[in-house]
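Supplementary Methods S3. Input chains for the assembly prediction are listed below.
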Amino acid sequence: MTSQLKRTLTRELPQFEGQTVKLQGFVHARRDLGGVQFLVLRDVSGVTQCVGSGLQLPLAESSVEVVGKVKAHPKAPGGFEVQIEDFRVISAATEPTPVEIPKMEWNVNPETMLDYRVVTVRGLKERAALKVQAELVAAFRDHLRAEGFTEISTPKIVSAGAEGGANLFPIDYFGQNAYLAQSPQLYKQIMVGVFERVFEVAAVYRAEEHATSRHLNEYLSLDVEMGFIDDEEDVMGLENRLLGSIMERLKQTCAAEFELLGATIPDVPAHIPRIELMEARQLVTEKYGHQVGGKDLDPEAERLLSQHYAETEGSDFVFVTKYPRAARPFYAHPELNADGSVNGEVTRGFDLLFRGIEITSGGQRIHDYAMLMDSIASYKLKPESLEGYTEVFKYGMPPHGGFAIGAERLTAKLLGIANVRYARAFPRDRHRLTP
Amino acid sequence: MTSQLKRTLTRELPQFEGQTVKLQGFVHARRDLGGVQFLVLRDVSGVTQCVGSGLQLPLAESSVEVVGKVKAHPKAPGGFEVQIEDFRVISAATEPTPVEIPKMEWNVNPETMLDYRVVTVRGLKERAALKVQAELVAAFRDHLRAEGFTEISTPKIVSAGAEGGANLFPIDYFGQNAYLAQSPQLYKQIMVGVFERVFEVAAVYRAEEHATSRHLNEYLSLDVEMGFIDDEEDVMGLENRLLGSIMERLKQTCAAEFELLGATIPDVPAHIPRIELMEARQLVTEKYGHQVGGKDLDPEAERLLSQHYAETEGSDFVFVTKYPRAARPFYAHPELNADGSVNGEVTRGFDLLFRGIEITSGGQRIHDYAMLMDSIASYKLKPESLEGYTEVFKYGMPPHGGFAIGAERLTAKLLGIANVRYARAFPRDRHRLTP
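Predicted structure tokens for the full assembly:
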């Protein structure tokens, strides 16, 4: 009889106080006190405590069905418990899990956690991180669609790298040399000629040998490209609105996940502060005494600059603009001088820093064929090797620009996850090809 | 002055009759009659005729800005034309396009069309196909999210094939052997243990040497997996509702694209007809005299069976159920006999036929560890090689099932595109790695 009940989710229990419900889920934890058995049932929406007697509890992670009465219980997680009237094992675990799912913590044996990822990913915090990422990606898409963007799907098997020849994974493509795409850069630019405004959500691949806490060899890239712009300010404006939408959505859908992870959802200012790169380098040196190496910002400079904007403007975000040409790829649009001539030193490229780390590179791209060929020559690249890329610029490409956000890096930074690998279900790194 | 106008899209023109608007877009076609110049401007929303005098028209595909007055003009495409008051070339094409975009047809020199895909993809019909696909994918996601599904992102770099060892593209992964994923099958099953209901939209890879009109070596797979089911009927019910939502959305958003392509959007019955495979084979033989080879349905049988259901029930869709084990992979859930024992011959796998072609394979999967190990043994597979897959079934996986839809194949079939390669922006086939 009771098994004909419609399934109730644990988060819906408050609506059913005093009534009999049917729950389905996994045995998250269990305790047998002789006469009384407790089990914590985990379903997609949360966990709830169930109490019964005379039950043979199966191993943790077994999937089960509980029919019982909902009672308010201030000390139980969620404030309710279910008094078991009927209990059924749907699918019994045949072995204890290699680690106890409710007792895991991210910082304990991280490699072991990844080795057993097929079950450790069921942990509440692990799941929360992936749920936040799914919502973040959904908000990204919904916002862009509302601004007239079209989603595209571009090849990941390519004949050459978009960002140059380094860090490519080789593929044997029916005996031909091919590579995994590092970025949809050139394809999204081509598609601006079709849909004017495009985005893509897809994996990209970087064969970087070094292991850091902020890089993955396979990651989900949230790519945007926008045509008929005036300059990179239009692109930053779009990203500003987009981030606002994403954070608003996370507030609506993921408050519990942020609470579980002890993280806060940032407010996105209506106008994210901007600072030119040269000024930013100077500020970090003058205010914090940090000498910045290289041509752009080093990780410490990124951290200090973010600190400055958090303290002075209460902003977790800052755009660093006007990157030098030496720190940007050949397709970055140069700044123009007042007379319209090309400034050979500075580009219209920008980075977006969030809580001390770069989460986006973006900018205006070169759309003029002659300017592009000049740029290729000055970067000492071979025009033949880029022909597939340059061809389309003969056909009236409008001014355009865009950016890319690494979904895992943004998720990790939002949630305070120290290593980006834990913001991906099944990460790939230098040594890890499984699970 | 007028350049300070906000941009208007061509599809918005009817709202602006008699007013001055600013359009931006590409020169789709042009004609110079001496005193008068006509140009057809193409933007993301459509095309419109613009008329002016004394203009120097740039090459086709140049991007341009037109300011002018909107006038009703029954013979012009869309019923309106713009009388040019101000004209500006935003970015001039530097060469004529290799083919004339407005005069292309899919069936003329298809290889040439693909060679020059970076510009031929701008064609109205080419763009319409990709627009329909983008809407179809968006509707797929929105429907599943509304039914409580979570989007996942699983690895495409894998250590072994999910469907067996054949047809895999090898990757050099830091000197280790790895492959491009054929399917997210095992990962989506694992993730049922986390989110219960999951989906993924991502490219998959098949190293099939043969060139057919229905296969791609890289395609966009719309993957679904659903836990806590009773049997495959729950999965077919979901797919039935999902297709209903998708077609409803296409009616709302893509009517113009279907009209342009001379295609009609199918009605999805509230209950798509189902027929068991053995019965389907018999029907095709008895009604049409077609002897069906192999263990399942051959392409001619698929065509005839679809014809039968179109004629007798007015349905463009039919589920073929209870596939024999010999035609299904090891993870397909067997049918159970009345006493609960395993039927060694028949599975709970199904295909969905649409207008004469299979667009989905799906079914219930084995969730019981012992049953899975038995199945692996009876398929003469090595259990060691599948350990990464089988491990998770020790931990209480609930009954589950799912399916996958090839986005390009469904798009092509919906639109009457004869070759699936034209339903992808940049297709990969046996010989084609560029553009």
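Chain B has two domains: 2-91, 119-423. The radius of gyration of chain B is 26 Å.
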